[in-house]
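Let us work through a complete example step by step.
Step 1: write down the sequence.
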Amino acid sequence: MTNGTDVIDLASHDPDGRDRLIEALEPLGIDYELFACDPALADTAAFCAAYGFAPEDSANTILVVGKSDPPRYAACVVLAPNRLDVNRAVRERLGTRKASFAPADATRAITGMEIGGVTVFGLPRDLPIWVDARVLTRKRVVVGGGSRSWKVLLDPDALASMPGVEVVEGLALDPPPAT
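Step 2: predict the structure and record it as tokens.
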């Protein structure tokens, strides 16, 4: 009880974030499948190895920040093997001189999610969401589920159909050649 108002601890009512995820997904009217995962295996390489997903079918949601006053943020979705082109594509789209990956505390504050579980579902409405065009070339992708306990499997066209999403050619670079 605070100032005569009941305060609800959402984490105690939805400790793994499943309810929040479903609440964000349902209004979109898209087909999806929820996939529970061990939070210790939520990072992409560990997840793919443990659960048998190809990295090429895994897409990461990354919060980026353009260094300006005030800072400008965007969420970027790229296939796991690719590298987000922060120094050119992201910086230019943000219209700033410098851009970088947002720090963990900023990611948590803006998205309400931990790194390793960030998803495009349930982000603030005014946050730009950019999806690298290569994501749409996959038959099906696995994306973060808003917590380290959940992933979402879906047709990538569902991402492109979401309000506020912009598909961007060249948002990510090819992975470096294997040595």
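Step 3: interpret the result. The longest helix spans residues 86-94.
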